[in-house]
Amino acid sequence: MLEDRLLLWKFKHGSKDAFRAIYEKYAGDMLTLAGNLLDDKAGAEDVVQDVFIKLVESVGTFHLTGNLKSYLATCVANRSRDYIRSRIRQRNVIAKQAEKTPAETKSTVHLAIRSEELAKLSNALGELPYEQRETIVLRLHGDLRFRQIAKMQNVSTKTAQSRYRYGLDKLRSTLNGEVKK
Amino acid sequence: MSPSENIEKLIRKLHYETSAETHDRVFGNVMLALEKQQKQKAGVIKPDLWRMIMKTKITKLAAAAVIIAAVLVGILQLGGNGTNAVYASVVEQLHYARTMTYSIMTHTPVESMPTLRQQMAFKEPGYMRTTTADGYITVIDWNQNKGITLLPPKREYIDFEASNYQHDPAQDPFRVVEKLRNLPDEADEVLGEKEIDGRLLQGFRVTQGDMINTVWIDSQTEQLVRVEIEYANSPGMNTIMTDFQFNIELDDSLFSLAPTEGYTPMEVKADISTVTEEDLIAYLQMWSTWTKDGTFPPTFNPIELPKVTAEMIKQGKFGEGETSQQQQQAEAMQMYRGIMFVTQLPAESNWRYAGENVKYGDNQTPIFWYQPAGSQTYRVIYGDLSVKDVPPEDLPD
Known about the structure:
The complex is a heterodimer of chains A (about 180) and B (about 400).
Chain A: H1 2-12, H2 16-38, H3 41-58, H4 68-89, H5 91-100, H6 103-106, E1 109-111, H7 116-127, H8 130-140, H9 146-153, H10 157-180
Helix pairs in contact in A: 1-2, 2-3, 2-4, 3-4, 7-10, 8-10, 9-10
Chain B: H1 7-12, E1 16-18, H2 20-39, H3 51-54, H4 63-78, H5 84-95, E2 99-107, E3 116-123, E4 127-132, E5 137-141, E6 146-151, E7 156-161, H6 175-181, E8 189-196, E9 199-208, E10 211-218, E11 223-231, E12 238-246, E13 264-265, H7 277-290, H8 304-314, H9 325-343, E14 352-353, E15 362-370, E16 378-383, E17 387-390
Parallel strand pairs in B: 7-13
Antiparallel strand pairs in B: 2-3, 2-12, 3-4, 4-5, 5-6, 6-7, 8-9, 9-10, 10-11, 11-12, 14-15, 15-16, 16-17
């Protein structure tokens, strides 16, 4: 915690090394977060880049009140939503591109999956309603608390917890179903 | 996949990775934005100014050391009143320091709690040594997360692990530092010059929450001379740091984790490797019998606890009553075992304490929870000291 604050403070006062340390510390986690939220690996790269650029641009006025990872995770989640909205607006173009080349094979970002089970889980996660997926991913990869997730989603904490539970139940039943087949 | 398998664990394994080229490209783009940003700023501190401190695992330094760091960070942030040169000099002094020593004195208004005086010494990368006025020495090597305490009276020593505290802001043992982290950009008050111990010093005051920091700098030599911290919620308690020295030669042997020759491992009446959840529960119950209102300890933060306890004594929150020396020893041991159970929990256990203001008997309020190694569920202790196994999604938020 304090290390992050000192890094931010040093970065605020001109240290590129401090920023590099922040980037190296969190870029990987944020990429995983964005990748699981978007199921679009190229988009994940864009989102993470945007979030860090935003951090750079706002550092003069930036004031961290919680922990940095949570802050970045929230930024990634918000930016991912923007990205999805933008993607929906351009869905025809995206759809055509997707038909030609799946995003996974185009992007240099890829899911580090080493088992069939994880591949199935990744697919199943992508099939979940976005709010459930977002809740699960923010909780498990962003380390956000339900209260923080609820605030971001503008719902009650109970609703966030329910989304989490329902999402996990669906994933569990989807995976079990596939195994039975 | 069997239903019992922990799907949360699997989801946590869904990691994305990228090539070094992509990583460099993204980082390069961000750096371009950074350079653009920096061109618009004037008078920034040279990046290499931070080289030294970057190498220090500052979060892992002992609380008192971090207080100094944070206070000095605060000094630089004060700015804007014509004293930047003094600030800059002091901060530079810190940033280039390979070693740092100072004295720290903590005074409480409670007669039974004597003023604590310690000498602190730090050496990069991440070595710390404290020496109390009566000769007790503690050395911590934060690179190894190990420490040793030497107890001269009986020529004994205790080895310990230093890595078991989590950095949750609510439970962080460095909470006192967290209170300093948001120091305002400008001092609340410039105190002007004052002669202290024969030196003419320039003072600055910054209030942060219940913490009032007064920083004294010798404007002639631009040396940090004294930092005073008072606690608004604990009138009469204060911490004073003096005798700052930077970059003096500190031999590696000062930070050795090897016990002094002739010292033997301290014989602890109870083997702390066997402490259990039951010891924690016994401690919690015991504390609730000490307080008049039957509440549990306000905190498990080892830095906060003595201060809070002193304040509770002052406010008469503990019950009266004679106890035999034997009973006192038994209670001290139980307290020790209870606290050791918590301090031995690894960070992965995600332990949390929420017993402040909760009274014994409240069976609805969780006061402590942790995830035992290998368990899918958490152990949750309630205010009536009952214990339940609870899945992660049902934990208190």
